[in-house]
Specification:
Elements: H1 9-36, H2 42-64, H3 75-97, H4 102-109, H5 112-122, H6 129-146, H7 158-181, H8 188-210, H9 220-247, H10 250-256, H11 259-272, H12 278-298
Length: about 300
């Protein structure tokens, strides 16, 4: 069997450059979303972002000459990602972000990989020590963030905000779980416009049902935030992330994307003036170490002790 070719040096340099672009765009999205929500209700803001992202994705793929119609065998993954990774993740994230600081929200949302461990157990997969220890570290970090010393439980929406973001992470994990087991015909990037289009048709009725009096204020602040998220931090960053996944080993790219919550926490502190206290820092470190350990564990044979 011919061994897989290694990326050429200039390919690797391009990949790390694209990784940096994706991390910056995704990381900066959290404070931008927080600002945008000052003039919008959560579900309408999520729906508008998804709709704008769909239009951008169709234009982007057409410009790249990669716009293709998905075949029937790819329809299940189109539906799964549209429902769980796009509609529910963005909706739940906005609902949580409404009541929590952007930096804390970024950290909680990136607990996604931790939820893959119990999902794997449910399918009978053996979990190695790296993944088990990582899951334990991550759960400990979540407990630290939820402790009374870290947040005021009497504040309106504080507990609910944490739960919304953990539900967002779990929803994204379901999409990843299916994506890892799906036999792809078209690649993730080619399917992205169709996933966003389906999510658009799901997100707007959801917003109309649960926020009948909601909407987005027609002011420059929320609209500029929406444009940034729908055009750059969504489809463009996803294109960069997809390219990175093809050029770098999965473990390298996964660990690299841990920079997203770190950057989100940092930018939120510098730009929005959010405080980074001891419990938040400790919880974030535990969660990120846990996610890193789960990532390393996924790269090892499941039977390895």
């Amino acid at each position: 069997m011919t061994p897989p070719s290694r990326p050429r040096p200039h390919d690797s340099r391009s990949a790390f450059g694209l990784l940096a672009v994706a991390v910056v765009l995704f990381g900066s999205a959290w404070p931008v979303m927080k600002i945008g929500l000052s003039g919008a209700t959560p579900l309408w803001f999520a729906a508008a972002r998804i709709g704008l992202g769909a239009a951008t994705a169709f234009l982007l793929l057409a410009a790249l000459g990669r716009l293709k119609i998905p075949e029937r065998r790819d329809l299940p993954i189109v539906a799964t990602i549209a429902i769980f990774q796009l509609t529910l993740f963005h909706s739940f994230s906005q609902l949580g972000l409404r009541n929590l600081p952007a930096g804390r929200s970024a950290v909680l949302a990136y607990t996604t990989l931790l939820f893959l461990v119990p999902l794997a157990c449910l399918t009978g997969e053996r979990i190695n020590r790296w993944s088990g220890a990582g899951c334990l570290l991550g759960v400990t970090g979540i407990a630290v963030l939820l402790a009374p010393q870290s947040i005021d439980w009497t504040t309106d929406g504080a507990i609910a905000g944490h739960l919304w973001l953990l539900m967002a992470a779990a929803s994204w994990a379901l999409a990843i779980f299916h994506a890892r087991r799906h036999a792809w015909h078209l690649g993730p990037l080619e399917l992205l416009p169709w996933q966003l289009l389906l999510a658009t048709f799901l997100a707007f009725p959801l917003a109309a049902l649960f926020e009948p009096d909601g909407g987005i204020v027609a002011e420059s602040g929320p609209l500029l935030c929406l444009a940034y998220l729908g055009i750059l931090a969504g489809p463009t960053a996803t294109w960069a992330a997809t390219s990175v996944s093809r050029l770098l080993p999965t473990t390298v790219s996964s660990l690299g994307f841990l920079g997203v919550p770190v950057l989100g926490l940092t930018i939120s502190a510098l730009w929005l003036g959010e405080a980074i206290d001891g419990p938040l820092l400790l919880g974030a470190v535990l969660i990120l170490c846990g996610v890193g350990a789960v990532t390393l564990g996924a790269a090892r044979p499941s039977a390895e002790p």
